[in-house]
Design a protein that fits this description.
51% strand; globular; two-stranded antiparallel ribbon; mainly beta
């Protein structure tokens, strides 16, 4: 995180899940995940396939993302 702060939820179940493209699922929210507050200087690593979302954004966020995608076989 470069700047800003948010409540990040990881894990749990994706509600109203829809596949938007191969290996990409979106939903309306997550239930049952773990919430953590993140801010400047934090580094978060989320394993491929683990549901995650910003439940609440407390101030404008600036952050870098490195995303890997699974390849079909």
């Amino acid at each position: 995180m470069l700047s800003g702060s948010a409540s990040l939820v990881t894990g749990g179940d994706v509600i109203d899940a829809k596949t938007i493209e191969p290996f990409e699922v979106r939903g309306t929210r997550i239930e049952g995940g773990v919430t953590q507050e993140i801010g400047p200087g934090d580094v978060v690593s989320i394993a491929r396939g683990v549901p995650h979302w910003f439940r609440a954004v407390h101030s404008p966020l600036e952050y870098y993302v490195v995303k890997t995608t699974a390849q079909g076989t």
